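The authors assume throughout that readers already know how a fold can be written as discrete tokens. In essence, backbone conformation is discretised, so a fold becomes a row of integers matching the chain in length. A single example would do more here than another paragraph of explanation. For illustration, here is how one protein appears when written out as sequence plus structure tokens:

…
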Amino acid sequence: MRFNRCAVTGCVFGGIVLFTSVSAHALNYFELEVYPYNTAARDEVEVENRTTYSRRGTKEDETPGANKGLTRSSFEAVYGVTDKSEVAAYVDYARPRDGEFDRVANRVRYRTRFYEKGELPVDLGLYAEMEFPRKADNDAEFELRGILEKDFDKWTLDFNPMFEKVVRGVEAGAGWEFQYAASLIYRMNERWHPRLDLFGDFGLIRDFESKDQQKQLLSPAVDIKFGHGLYAGLGVGYGLTKATEQQVVRARIEWEFY
């Protein structure tokens, strides 16, 4: 069994940035996503939109209406480079209540998987992303995400440990931040996949935030397959700490084609 060339390239790229780059952003509400082991097939194209709407903001900000009514929307295009690796580009937009949509960031990323499904006790993958915020103190941020997946009968457990760092900007010397995304999925049938997602941000690795300042979001959701490469997802997120937005509605639509 051997890794393909793109997988090795992705590991080398991620390792170089991880150990040589000079606090990443908090919980990313633009990408409340738990990535699975599977990647796009060779030459497959995917277009996707993820949108979240904050119905209730954080408890720690007592300003009336703070963070409430904020819409975040991310548009993504994915291309399958090989049967085990893909590249993607994103554009992120945000719209405050009674405001206009504004582009807030561009992102590019590489994702790969190792071996074939079931060959290892846990299926493994890797994700590396560069984000370029606009109108912000930080100009570039890096994310390295592991992907671990295990199937149990009709259940699938996915876990994504994430390491984030500002590589250019005023927080470039702050250090690495640890986040995670996890999901328990029930493959009810070919069309319906109910799931329970959990997203968290502990803060800087060298100095985790207090429990109230950490971000923890619990989100029941469902994935729906309509056929002809069309998928959708709907969910509601509930903040488990004061620093987390207390109620977030999330939606996703994806179209796969060759």
In short: The chain has one domain: 5-257. Residues 5-257 form a domain with the Porin fold (CATH 2.40.160.40). The longest strand covers residues 138-152.
